[in-house]
Amino acid sequence: MAVHARAISPATAKTDYRERPIGVFDSGVGGLTVLHELLVALPHEDYVYLGDTARFPYGERTPQELTRFALELSEELLARGAKLLVVACNAATSAALGALQERMLETTLGVEVLGVVRPEAAQAVAQTRSGRIGLLATPTTVASAAYDRALAAVDAHVTLTAVPCPGLARMIQEGQEFSAAAVELVRAACAPLIAADVDTVILGCTHYPLIGRMLQRMLGPQVRLIASGPALARQVEHALTTRRLRSASEREGEYRFLCTGEVESFSALATRFLQMPLTAVEQVALGALADAEGAIGVG
Ligand code: DGL
Predict the structure, then answer these.
(1) pLDDT band at 278 (very low <50, low <70, confident <90, very high)
(2) Which of 50, 89, 104, 158 could covalently link to 258 via disulfide, CB atoms 3.0 to 4.6 Å apart?
(3) Following CA atoms 275, 240, 25, 118 in sequence, which dihedral angle do they give, to the nearest 10 degrees?
(4) Structural contact between residues 8 and 79, judged by C-beta atoms closer than 8 angstroms
């Protein structure tokens, strides 16, 4: 499989900034749950999606590594002409959103970076009646306490029961989410949330909506699940509108898919998750940027 360097696409040649694509990235296919919501909310926009499948999973990596990866992925998407960046990964958002936003303001024409976490926290506070909120997320995201901070900023009186779920995103990405081992893992993760009598559960990993039905059955009908996609899609819509960046086009948008790992499995999974036949998926190599890490000064 040919590996392409960071080719600059014709998208960068688009002089009307509004017609440039929205860049979206994740460690793998989980961010497609966010992309789906964006396609529903903003169907006339173009998108370029980048899954860092070669370095998946992110959920047990250090904040320093995640910051470096997030900067590399963002540079790649900017090189493809992105007008706005969406971090469709909770682990990367909780570790790197601040650094990314600073970098984008310093080095570009002020391209805005939006992430998950905050929009779901606001939505969870709006939904809960008891004030008892649960969180299912990767170990890195739970350890970052990003949700504790985001919830406290909206309402200091809610309580959070956070459960790390090591290995769950991998099982989902490998298509093993309904194996006996996965079902047991999910059951064990739900137990502390049931014991804490939460009425709202944040799915703090963009892979988890893919097992939303199983979670709803295990947690019970009274529990509301909050996923990253819908809340973030609304924020993206607001950002594009207030910054006058919405595409003026009435046609269906164009979608491009990039990944850092093997193309065939990404393509098959993405087709299944999005229920959309994917045309060519391009493999990208990000190593050159990793070498420049010292020069970037982050990590
Ligand atoms: N989908 C990503 C997240 O939202 C990460 C899963 C992983 O790479 O471990 O956290």
Answers:
(1) confident
(2) 50
(3) -100
(4) yes
- Asked, for residue 2, whether it belongs to a domain, the answer is no
- Is residue 101 a part of any domain in this protein? yes
Which atom of ligand 1 lies at the shortest distance from residue 141's CA? 10
Residue 57 CB–ligand 1 contact under 6 Å: yes
Domain range holding 51?
A: 21-115+231-286
Average pLDDT over residues 77-104: 95
- pLDDT tens digits for 191-233? 999 999 999 999 999 999 999 999 999 999 999 999 999 999 9
Q: Is residue 299 part of a domain?
A: no
State whether 111 and 238 are in the same domain. yes
Domain match, 218 and 137 both: yes
Using CA atoms, how far residue 176 sits from 56, 124, 171, in Å, is 16, 29, 5
Which positions are annotated as active-site residues? 89, 205
Residue 164 in domain: yes
Which of the residue ranges 6-10, 76-80, 228-232, 233-237 would you say has the lowest mean pLDDT?
6-10
Check: pTM over 0.85? Answer yes or no. Answer: yes
Closest C-alpha to ligand 1, atom 2: 89
